């Protein structure tokens, strides 16, 4: 699955970039390194990689500028932020920027390769779809269609919608959503779910579609017509 899969690594620490590139190459990935945000954006536009890894510590907070630029340019590949801290504020900043996930330093090859593999190695059965009203989610092609219009989603947006569509008409708590979509519980308050629900609503309702993701006050969200 990994053979020749293109990955863009945006990292200005030369030694770390070379180490990560070597580990990824040994695992079968085809790696392109960019040492600044501008070069990273150019490489992603040119190569259309399957995954992008961006160091949060790029000079001048440019990582938080680069991720939205990548999304605006049409990049729907998973974006991982490499971060040195794991505070609630850091997590919120990561997800609000448009990144799908984060990986904590210090860098450990086995853990990083496992994280990359989780995003790139699909185990979804062929031919499986989820449907709710005029909304179709194809689990193989990762296409989302509503009223014959294709909707481009990031990996985390897709996973959130898939979870909601797996339990239509069921009121899902914030805790259930965090555990099943992000894979862990947040400590304290975080608005990451609200941020991603807002993204989904904007995309799903863009062509005049009525709201399907409903807020359940004090509980969480429900997919309801």
UniProtKB/TrEMBL annotation:
Residues of the Response regulatory domain: 6-120
Assigned keywords, A-Z: DNA-binding, Phosphoprotein, Transcription, Transcription regulation, Two-component regulatory system
GO CC annotations on file: cytosol; protein-DNA complex
DNA-binding region(s) from the entry: 127-225
Presence of the UniProt keyword Metal-binding in the record: no
Positions of the OmpR/PhoB-type domain: 127-225
PROSITE patterns documented for this protein: OMPR_PHOB, RESPONSE_REGULATORY
InterPro entries membership: CheY-like_superfamily, OmpR/PhoB-type_DNA-bd, Sig_transdc_resp-reg_C-effctor, Sig_transdc_resp-reg_receiver, WalR-like, WH-like_DNA-bd_sf
Record PTM 4-aspartylphosphate, positions in chain: 55
Domain of life: Bacteria
UniProt cross-references to SUPFAM superfamilies, sorted A to Z: C-terminal effector domain of the bipartite response regulators, CheY-like
Gene Ontology molecular-function annotations: phosphorelay response regulator activity; transcription cis-regulatory region binding
Classification via Pfam families: Response_reg, Trans_reg_C
Biological-process GO terms, alphabetical: regulation of DNA-templated transcription
Gene3D superfamilies (UniProt xref): 3.40.50.2300, Winged helix-like DNA-binding domain superfamily/Winged helix DNA-binding domain
Protein name from the UniProt record: DNA-binding response regulator
Source organism (scientific name): Chamaesiphon polymorphus CCALA 037
């Amino acid at each position: 699955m990994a053979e020749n899969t293109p990955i863009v690594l945006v990292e200005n620490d030369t030694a770390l970039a070379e180490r990560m590139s070597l580990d990824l190459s040994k695992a079968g990935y085809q790696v392109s390194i960019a040492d600044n945000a501008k070069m990273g954006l150019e490489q992603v536009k040119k190569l259309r990689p399957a995954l992008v890894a961006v160091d949060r510590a790029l000079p001048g907070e440019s990582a938080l500028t680069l991720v939205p630029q990548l999304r605006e340019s049409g990049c729907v590949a998973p974006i991982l932020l490499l971060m040195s801290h794991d505070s609630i504020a850091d997590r919120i900043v990561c997800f609000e920027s448009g990144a799908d996930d984060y990986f904590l330093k210090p860098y450990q090859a086995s853990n990083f390769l496992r994280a990359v593999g989780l995003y790139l190695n699909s185990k979804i059965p062929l031919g499986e779809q989820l449907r709710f009203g005029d909304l179709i989610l194809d689990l193989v092609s990762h296409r989302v269609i509503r009223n014959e219009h294709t909707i481009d989603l990031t990996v985390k947006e897709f996973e959130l919608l898939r979870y909601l569509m797996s339990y239509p008409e069921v009121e899902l708590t914030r805790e259930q959503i965090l555990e099943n979509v992000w894979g862990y519980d947040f400590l304290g308050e975080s608005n990451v779910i609200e941020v991603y629900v807002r993204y989904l609503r904007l995309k799903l309702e863009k062509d005049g579609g009525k709201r399907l993701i409903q807020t359940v006050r004090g509980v969480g969200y429900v997919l309801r017509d």
